[in-house]
Structure formats: C-alpha cells, structure tokens
TrEMBL record:
<protein>
    <submittedName>
        <fullName>Carbohydrate esterase family 9 protein</fullName>
    </submittedName>
</protein>
<dbReference type="InterPro" id="IPR050138">
    <property type="entry name" value="DHOase/Allantoinase_Hydrolase"/>
</dbReference>
<dbReference type="GO" id="GO:0005737">
    <property type="term" value="C:cytoplasm"/>
</dbReference>
<feature type="transmembrane region" description="Helical">
    <location>
        <begin position="20"/>
        <end position="37"/>
    </location>
</feature>
<keyword id="KW-1133">Transmembrane helix</keyword>
<dbReference type="Pfam" id="PF01979">
    <property type="entry name" value="Amidohydro_1"/>
</dbReference>
<keyword id="KW-0472">Membrane</keyword>
<dbReference type="GO" id="GO:0006145">
    <property type="term" value="P:purine nucleobase catabolic process"/>
</dbReference>
<dbReference type="InterPro" id="IPR011059">
    <property type="entry name" value="Metal-dep_hydrolase_composite"/>
</dbReference>
<keyword id="KW-0812">Transmembrane</keyword>
<dbReference type="InterPro" id="IPR006680">
    <property type="entry name" value="Amidohydro-rel"/>
</dbReference>
<feature type="domain" description="Amidohydrolase-related">
    <location>
        <begin position="141"/>
        <end position="491"/>
    </location>
</feature>
<dbReference type="GO" id="GO:0004038">
    <property type="term" value="F:allantoinase activity"/>
</dbReference>
<dbReference type="InterPro" id="IPR032466">
    <property type="entry name" value="Metal_Hydrolase"/>
</dbReference>
Length: 929
C-alpha cells in the first residue's frame, strides 16, 4: 500500500487574536482619553465606535476558511441520517503530489467528510456499526468533478421562455446582480450532470454584460429544504443581510466579467465601449474604496469629529470587494486583444483575475497573461469546441498542453449548457489526448478549478477531512466513455440504481496517447491557423505494416465487415495507386516488405477502415457559424415568410452553396471523415435538397468534390417553430399527396416514388408518432413505400419498436441532452439507464446513424463512434460502430455510391489512435495527414 502524508499545510493563525487585541487597545485608549479630557476640546467618541473600528479592521481580512476549519468532524452540509460508507479496494486518485498520487486501498466517509484514505481495518469499523460497504473491486475512484464555468439552474433545461435568467440587459456593468436570484432548483440537468460525476459548479451570470454580476458555487445534489440557497457552498456571510461577525474571515465571492464580442453585440457597441464600461465601474468602486479607507484611517487615528457614517453603497460594495482582493473574478475573454485590455485594467485598478474563460487565444499570449496584476489568471477552456465565431476561430486543441508548458493553470470547463457538463470529463480526456499530462488533465476538472474558485480547502481532492464528494468510475477517468458507477456528494450516494456497461480491460489504464509535437509547434507558428491540407504520398505504392485489423464496406449487406484481424501477427496492406492490391499476413504479400520503391508506414497494431461520413451540422456551408459573411446562410422558409416570387416554389439545393476548404471539413478529413452530407440551413419547415461532398476537396470543380449532387429532401417539424405542429403536418401531407406545385411537387413526387428519402428533422415522440401515421396514410393512398429518416429524434427511443416496424431509420446524437421541451424525454444511457438510445434502436432493428450539430464536432466522429460501442454493453462491435458513421448514414440519407475511401489509423481506436493516411481509390493515391 502506497501512501503519502494527507494534509496540506494549514498555517493561518493568529489573525483573529491580533485583531481583537488591536481593537481593544484602540477602544480602551479612547475611553481613557475621554475620561481624562472630558471637555469640549476632545474628539466625540460615537456610541458605536467599537463596531466601526471592528468594521474598519475587517476590511483588511483576506477570505478563506476559519483557522479551525480542518479540525471539523462534521460537514456543515451533513444530512443527519446519512450512513457512513466504506469504499473498499479502490485505485484512488487523490489529487495530491501535483495529481500524481494514487493510493490503492479504501475510503471511509462519514458525517459528509472523508474520514480515511488508505487501509481501513476492522477495528476502525467498530466505531461505525451501520457502515455501508461498497466493494470497488479495484476500480478508479476520484474526487467529484468541479465545473468552474456553468449556467446550471440559470440556463435551465428544458429551455423555456420563463427561465432565461442568466443575462440582464439593464446595463453594461452590474456588479450588484446575483446569479442565485435565478437559480432554478428544477433544472433537468442536475441529475444528468451528477451522473457524469459533477458534484460542484460555479454558476455564473451570462456574458451579455461587461460585469454581469456575482456568481455562486453550488453543490448539485437535491436538498431537504429544496431551496436555491440550500444548494450554495460557503455563500458569503452577508448574503442574507444578517449580522456578520467582523472578526471572522470572509468567504470567497465570485464575479462574472466579460469582454469581446458578447457585450459589444448586446449593446451594439464596440470593444472600446465595453472597456470604458469597465473603467467607469472600477473608478466608481475605487472612489468608494478610497473614501472608506480615508474614513477608517481617521477612525483608527481617533479623529472622530465630523466623521459621520461609514461610506457604503449596496450597488458597489461587491466591486469594492474586488479591489480589496476578496472576489474571484471569472472573466469571459477570448482574444489576445481582449486579454490585453483586461490585463491593463487589472494593473490600472490593482485587482486580480481568477481565470480567463473560453480564452481561445490565451495559448498564443502566455507572456501577456503573466503580466496580470497580482498573479497570472488560470485559463478555463473547451477542448475542441471552436471556430463558432471570430473570437474562437484560432482556438487550438493543443491549447491545454501549450498553456501548461508555459506554467499557467489549465481548467477544462463546460459553460453548461453550451457543453453538457455531464460530459465535462470528456473535455479533460480530449485535453489529455492532445498532449496535456494525465495528472494535469485530471486536475483540470477537480483540484485546479477548486483552487481557482477558492474552495480548495474542502473540495477538488480526495483527502481526509475534505467533503465526501467522490466518484467511483467504471474505467480510468481519462479513457474514452469513462462513466461513474456511483457518485457521492456530501457522503450521500446519488445514483439509486446505477447501470453499467462492461468496459474492456484496457480501459482501466491511462490511455497511451499519440505524439503531436509537430502539430503543437505549428499551432503556435501559424497563430492558431496551421495549414490543414493533406499531403499526397509521393510514392505510388504504400505498404502499411503492423496492421491490427481491416474493416471494409460489405456490398451485399451495405454494412461494414471485419475482413482481417492480425491476432498478434504482422498484418500487411499493400496499396498501389490508391487501391489495395494485397492484404493479410506477410505470407499473403511476400514481396511487399522488400519493395524499396514503396512508402512504408507502421500502424502499430492500428486499423484500416472505411472513410467516415458526417451529417447534421452545416459543414461545407460555413467557415465560422457566427459570421454570416462566411456562411451560405439560411433559406427562405415558405411556411414562415413570404418567399420572393422569383424563387417561390423552388427547392433549394445545398450543392449550390457549398464552400470548400473550411477548417472544420479539413479537420474532419484529418480525423477520418472523408465525406459529408449537408442540407441547406433552415430555421423553419422546408430545408431543401442535401448534397454529398468530399471534405478534402479544394474547390467544387475538382474531381470528386461533389460526390452526389442530390441526396435527400429535408424538412423539419418542431414545437418551437412558431407555427402549429398540425399546420406543419398538414403541409407535409398535402405535399406528399401531390398537392404542391412546380419544383416542390417534383421533389415530393420523387420522395413518394421512393427515389430519394425524406429526412425529417424532428425531436418530439408525439410528432414522430404523427409522422409514422402520415407515412401509412400516404402509402395507403399512393400504393408506394416512402423512405423516411428521422434526425435529431431525441425522443424517438420511446417508439423504437414502432419505428422499426415502420421501416423508418433514425439519426441521433451520440450523447442526448434535453435542451428543449421536445427533447425532454431522453434515454440517458449508463449509469441512469441500462440501454443507450443507439443500443435500443439496434435492438429494435432500426437502422441508426450518429449526427453532430456543430461543425467543430465533425473531427470527433471517431470518438463518438467508439463511445457508442463502449456504452452499448456489447450490442455494438467495432464493425457495427463504424457502420453508424458510414454505411448506415449513407443508407439513411440516400447516398447511392458512397466513397470507397479507407482510413489508416495508427494505434488503437479510441484515444490511443491517430489517423495517419487516407487511401483514395477514386483518386488513385494516398493522402498523408
Ligand atoms: C481488489 O480487486 C481486485 C479486482 O477485482 C482483486 O483482484 C483483488 O484481489 C482485490 N483486493 C482486495 C484486497 O480485495
Ligand atoms: C443567514 O446567514 C447566516 C450565516 O450564513 C445564517 O446563520 C442564518 O441562518 C441565515 N439566515 C437566514 C434567515 O437564512
Ligand atoms: C429484429 O430482426 C431479427 C432478425 O430478422 C428478428 O429475429 C427480431 O425479432 C427483430 N426484432 C425486433 C424487435 O423486431
């Protein structure tokens, strides 16, 4: 058993005693003076002098836990009746030793606290007769996940007009607002995020304002009181206006700041306006602070005459507290230009920033960040969610590694619900995949955010005396798809009946990630925009060595089959002019290895498999989704607006709007996504005709750039479109029954004739049921069979059987989330339900594919696919998982002749692997990526 000392040093002492002595001394000397010189010449000592002096000396107290905090034997959040728990035989990542310590042993929790980490013997258990024992059987155990950037409760799910509580539009600088005032205790996301291991979150106001208000740290579990306030972790004492003991160290407060596009956009202003709003606000706070300090200077010097009341202002007290170093400033700030402005502001007004959020350019300006007043801010970022607006367009997946190399604190965050915080660990996993050391990756969602929010005296590490916020994992937390099997908050088990999916043994180890040294250097060299175009192999012949497995499309089944597995032998694939000419064991390709005219690539046991397909995002129609001038733009929806006569009745074709060489398409290609199906962007009922294109093509006129001009006809049926669902269904019915005109009639006739599929973007199970009824109705009337594919389809699992019987296919997100009412009834998958939605569709013979919604997710398709298999409890093998993002999508979207591209991956399929080459039979060469 390996063990190192547990307690961090606690050296805060003597403060209170010293202050008490000072106040007593000052007050008693006045009293003495007063007695001696009780005539008109002396200062008049106000009746509340002692209170004022205490208040004045309290201004200099720094926030933190009370001195005796670590002597606590029970948590202030302990729920009486909670039984002690012993987690036996665990691999415990404690967070100590810079995140390198692992203790193999037990964890004993009681009274909401971790009582023991290490070996718990029977004698010790005598003191806990009612202990509940959880045998971890060697599983990984970690502290609960801490999300530094969340809008849980203020940006609730499902999102409703009645619950938009994260942004005030009352001004640019509103330090007096409090996110707590909007904290909804009924957000559907709490339970989901807990099931992903999140135990604590910093709930921030939004970024519409320069100073959006005060943030509050919550624990996610339900409370007996059911109140918003009961969720708070160490709220400031002054929160409810009751008397505050001036000698007690204050607790940390949190405040949201934002620069850049968001505040500018909301007020049609500019960065200059936002920066002035900051300076004006800080100047107001500084003047008030100076008045307070002058007042206290006089009071402490005994100059009471005419002193009056202590200068206070309820609106500005929180910002004054920032200047007093008692607030963690959490600063949404993306670009170098904005970071520069904030650094100047900190030095002008002398305050510190706890962390820069989003900070997509932080890795380009580490030395600038180090110039911040006080200390360098931490950098809280997404792993691969980028390029959605100008501010994010230089974001790099290598930022966590580069920032860490520069000695800056790295935090991975969700910005929930921007990313579903249930999967915050996935951000840490990706950061690790792209080069962040394992200890720092785990710290980035536990101990580091706990420290940045000022709560590292009780959460973020798994050590004796800390809050019993603990996760038991089904695999190593940095391995893809790692899922909690139990989560404790304040010692209370949060999963009543956890479901698990069996994981491979290899998932118990830290993934051995690829080397990205060159990519990391290029990210910096090219200021976040490294060239992404593939390089064509110079040799006509490429020999792949050490091939672990080969998967190919199966023409007969229109699926994917494993055609070779090396079973430890040295698998070989010889490619000549883009075509496999020989594959299998070395014996099958005897001359391959000796060919000196060939390029030899060692796949280190990796695979060769079909090129992946992406669907669901506007990939190929936009460079930066938030910038209209970089995008094809939305179509006119005939059901919501009056379409200009000149184009009325024409069905729009995505092929006409394709934009090539977008960074998201090229990143997709480099990660094995060789083609994509994209429909015209629409906010309403009618989208138009989708197209199939190659993700690496430089422009449309290159051979193979447009693989299939028209794939399917796309419509959307939605509860939130502003037009009744019944009207939308009626429209669809009349179009399917041939009542349309012109081009519209022709395209729907093709659907009815079975020539192209009808792809219906629909989330609600009720609308899906109506679609199934409509399909029957139309088929009865026309005598033809229509091909229908449902996409989005978050609630479709409720009708999996009926959808299967109707011969309808579905395309869903790998990770469902109840963002809107019509997506409310998700099938969450383990640990909340045994089956994932995808596994349920497979069990019901429904052809299922995986979609993404944002172009920046395209590059992660291979992770989505592997994850779907990992959480299917064996229902999906590798070949079936590959089909989800290749042949199934092609079938469902009307792709006649999918690409024959093959992807060569070095190393394993999840976080171990890296795509190194794309074999292109259609082009007759191999691309190196
Ligand atoms: C811990 O669990 C592992 C895996 O199940 C098992 O091999 C080992 O014997 C267990 N150790 C103890 C001390 O129970
Ligand atoms: C106000 O806060 C104090 C300190 O946290 C607490 O002791 C007190 O019970 C609270 N009062 C109310 C009315 O919530
Ligand atoms: C799925 O198909 C298989 C094979 O055709 C059949 O045995 C099974 O009953 C079907 N399952 C459902 C739920 O329809």
């Amino acid at each position: 058993m390996e063990k190192t000392p547990l307690y961090p040093p606690t050296a805060r002492k003597r403060v209170r005693a010293a202050q008490l002595a000072l106040v007593l001394l000052v007050v008693s000397s006045y009293a003495f003076t007063y007695l001696l010189w009780s005539d008109s010449r002396v200062e008049t000592l106000p009746i509340n002098a002692a209170t004022i002096l205490a208040q004045c000396s309290a201004l200099h107290l720094t926030p933190g836990p009370p001195n005796d905090f670590h002597a606590r034997t029970q948590s202030d959040r302990f729920v009486p009746g909670t039984k002690p728990t012993l987690i036996r035989n665990a691999s415990i990542w404690t967070g100590l030793d810079s995140g390198n310590e692992v203790v193999y042993g037990d964890v004993l929790i009681d009274k909401g606290l971790v009582k023991k980490v290490g070996s718990v013997n029977l004698a010790m258990l005598n003191a806990y007769p009612d202990v509940v024992v959880l045998d971890a059987a060697g599983a990984w155990v970690s502290p609960g996940i801490v999300d530094l950037h969340s809008h849980l409760g203020v940006g609730s799910s499902p999102s409703l007009n009645g619950a938009r509580d994260s942004n005030s539009h009352a001004g640019l600088a509103l330090p007096w607002l409090r996110s707590l005032d909007g904290l909804n205790t009924h957000d559907d996301a709490y339970q989901l995020s807990i099931s992903g291991g999140v135990t604590t979150a910093n709930v921030l106001p939004g970024s519409a304002d320069a100073i959006g208000g005060q943030a509050f740290v919550i624990k996610l579990r339900p409370t007996a009181e059911r109140s918003s306030s009961a969720m708070l972790l160490e709220p400031p004492f002054s929160l409810n206006g009751t008397y505050v003991d001036p000698f007690q160290r204050p607790r940390w407060r949190q405040m949201k700041h934002a620069c850049g596009e968001n505040p500018s956009r909301v007020y049609s202003g500019t960065r200059m306006d936002t920066q002035w709003a900051f300076r004006q606000a800080y100047n107001t706070a500084r003047i008030l602070k100076d008045k307070q300090d002058a007042y206290c200077g006089k009071a402490l010097a005994g100059q009471w005459t005419g002193l009056g009341e202590f200068p206070e202002d309820l609106q500005w007290e929180a910002l004054v507290d920032v200047l007093r170093g008692r607030v963690k400033v959490q600063n949404h700030c993306y670009e170098g230009v904005d970071i520069d402005g904030m650094i100047r502001l900190t030095n002008e007004f002398k305050f510190s920033i706890a962390a820069f959020y989003h900070a997509h350019e932080a890795y380009l300006v580490p030395d600038l960040i180090k110039k911040a007043y006080g200390h360098p801010p931490a950098v809280a970022i997404f792993a691969t969610h980028a390029r959605f607006k100008r501010e994010a367009s230089r974001g790099s997946e290598f930022a966590p590694r580069i920032l860490a190399d520069n000695g800056l604190d790295v935090v991975m965050k969700s910005d929930h619900p921007v990313l579903d915080s249930r999967h915050l660990i996935y951000e840490a996993q990706q950061a690790h995949y792209f080069g962040l050391a394992a200890n720092l990756a785990l710290a980035s969602v536990t101990s580091t955010p706990a420290r940045i929010m000022g709560q590292d005296h009780r959460i973020g590490r798994l050590i004796e005396g800390f809050d019993a916020d603990i996760i038991v994992w089904d695999s190593h937390p940095l391995s893809l798809g790692a899922t909690p099997t139990q989560v404790f908050i304040d010692g209370i088990a949060q999963l009543e009946k956890p479901y698990t999916s069996t994981k491979p043994k290899s998932a118990q180890k830290v993934p051995a990630t690829p080397n990205f040294d060159k990519e990391i250097a290029d990210a910096i060299k090219y200021e976040g925009l490294p060239p992404l175009e593939p390089e064509t192999a110079k040799s006509d012949i490429v020999v792949f060595r050490n091939v672990g497995s080969i998967f190919l499309k199966n023409a007969a089944t229109r699926g994917v089959s494993e055609v070779f597995t090396s079973a430890g032998a040295d698998g070989v694939v010889v490619v000549e002019k883009g075509r496999i000419v020989c594959s299998g064991t070395q014996a099958a390709c005897p001359t391959a290895l000796s060919r000196s005219d060939a390029l030899h690539l060692d796949l280190e046991g990796g695979s060769i498999s079909p090129g992946l397909v992406s669907y669901g995002s506007p990939l190929g129609l936009t460079h930066i989704t938030g910038e209209p001038s970089t995008s094809d733009g939305p179509v006119f929806d005939p059901l919501s607006i009056l379409v200009p006569e000149i184009i009325d009745g024409t069905v729009i074709r995505a092929a006409d709007g394709l934009l090539f060489a977008t960074r998201d398409a090229l990143l997709g290609y480099r990660n094995g996504v060789t083609s994509a199906v994209t429909a015209p962007s629409s906010y309403g009922f009618l989208s138009g005709l989708s197209t199939v294109f190659g993700t690496a093509a430089a422009h449309k006129l290159i051979d193979g750039a447009v693989i299939q001009k028209i794939a399917a006809l796309h419509v959307a049926l939605s509860l939130s479109s502003g037009i009744s669902v019944s009207t939308q269904i009626a429209t669809l019915r009349s179009l399917l029954l041939g009542e349309g005109e012109g081009d519209l009639a022709k395209q729907f006739a093709d659907v009815v004739a079975g020539k192209i599929p009808l792809v219906v973007d629909v989330e609600s199970a009720d609308i899906i049921a109506s679609v199934l009824v409509l399909k029957k109705e139309v088929e009865a009337a026309t005598g033809k069979t229509i091909r229908i594919t449902l996409t989005g389809a978050t609630e479709a699992h409720l009708l999996a059987k009926e959808i299967g019987l109707a011969g309808v296919g579905v395309i869903v997100q790998q990770r469902p989330y109840p963002k809107t009412w019509q997506q409310k009834r998700i099938l969450a998958g383990p640990p909340l339900t045994q089956s994932s939605a995808i596994a349920k569709f497979v069990a019901n013979n429904v052809t299922v594919g995986i979609k993404v919604t944002d172009p920046s997710e395209v590059r992660n398709t291979r992770f989505d696919m592997a994850w779907a298999a990992l959480e299917s409890n064996g229902a999906l093998g590798k070949a079936e998982a590959l089909a989800l993002v290749s042949t199934n999508l092609e079938k469902l979207l009307g792709v006649e002749d999918g690409s024959g591209d093959l992807v060569a991956t070095k190393g394993g399929s999840g976080f171990e692997g890296k795509v190194v080459a794309i074999i292109l039979p259609g082009h007759g060469f191999v691309d190196l990526v």
